[in-house]
Design goal:
2 domains; single chain; Heat Shock Protein 90; alpha/beta; elongated; seven-stranded mixed β-sheet
Length: 310
């Protein structure tokens, strides 16, 4: 994959960089995906004319809504295809946590799509994008595109070496009223029932309870099979989320990008964290003194959003 950061400062400069590259990719038989605002899509469609019908368009609101699912969507879209992607996230209104995870997942694309026959142009409107985000453009992208063409980024950092604000800070203590239960391999069925009961009593949407139970079950099963064989689960409600932490006294972080990259079909491991990241809003991990803590966050209410593929 070729991963390029593209800062621009006007509507015309966006079109000047996008139109010739889209046409060239179409001429080469590549599949083309453009993710940007409706206004920009309309301008691009006008310039492309008949070629517009050969381009896939997506809204940034749906594609970038959930960073972990964004990774899956890119992985699926580029699999086995020669592809050009021109993508532009909408950073307005995002919390610091959401911005951090989107920056991280943008970095992970370098590893997740390393073997893909794809060129990805990540666009940044310097008039609107926060400086904290712009600063990571050269860090997350091996190539920068400017007025003088493409140059290699001297600040690029490999995904497994990227450290963002808060990554090394200890996890906050569980919130008030937290409940803790212990589990072993024999008690996984009871564990699923207990988590579901807790979520229902807390008022979580029914559709989300299943996602939470599956996620907790996957992580707990990993602890039983690959960790100490037992652990604890602590649950509490905080800031409109149900938070569930699975602690494994025999766990270890041996994957530098745990759960961010889909496991190979023949792999016997790696599905638990991948599934949990797809289902939850945030997955935080910390490994200290032989104790692995996996903290799952899931909103209590379903947000109004669409799948990245639509």
């Amino acid at each position: 994959m070729k991963h390029v950061a593209v800062p621009y400062d006007s509507e015309e400069s966006f079109l000047e960089l996008a139109v010739p590259r889209v046409r060239s990719a179409l001429d080469e038989g590549r599949r083309v995906l453009v993710i940007t605002s409706q206004d920009r899509l309309d301008r691009l469609a006008d310039r492309l004319g008949r070629d517009c019908g050969r381009v896939d368009f997506r809204s940034p609101d749906s594609w970038y809504d959930h960073p972990y699912r964004m990774l899956a969507a890119y992985h699926e879209y580029t699999r086995g295809r020669r592809t050009l992607v021109i993508g532009e996230a909408d950073w307005a209104g995002r919390s610091a946590r959401e911005i951090r995870e989107l920056i991280r997942c943008d970095s992970v694309l370098n590893a997740a799509l390393r073997a893909a026959a794809a060129t990805m142009l990540c666009c940044y409107d310097v008039r609107n994008v926060p400086k904290s985000v712009l600063d990571y453009g050269p860090v997350n992208h091996p190539v920068l595109l400017g007025a003088d063409g493409e140059v290699t980024s001297g600040r690029f950092v490999e995904p497994h070496e990227l450290v963002l604000n808060g990554d090394r800070a200890p996890l906050p203590e569980p919130g008030p009223g937290a409940e803790t239960i212990r589990f072993t391999g024999r008690e996984l069925k009871r564990l699923r029932q207990t988590v579901g009961d807790y979520a229902r009593a807390a008022g979580m949407d029914r559709n989300l309870i299943t996602s939470l139970v599956i996620s907790v079950s996957e992580i707990a099963a990993n602890s039983v099979e690959h960790g100490a064989g037992h652990g604890t689960i602590t649950m509490w409600v905080e800031n409109g989320e149900l938070v569930c932490e699975i602690a494994d006294p025999g766990g270890a972080l041996d994957d530098p990008l745990p759960g961010y990259i889909p496991p190979e079909p023949e792999s016997p491991r790696g599905y638990g964290l991948w599934i949990s990241r797809q289902l939850c809003d945030l997955v935080d991990l910390r490994g200290e003194d032989g104790l692995l803590r996996v903290r799952l966050h899931l909103r209590m209410r379903s947000p109004e959003h669409r799948s990245p593929g639509h």
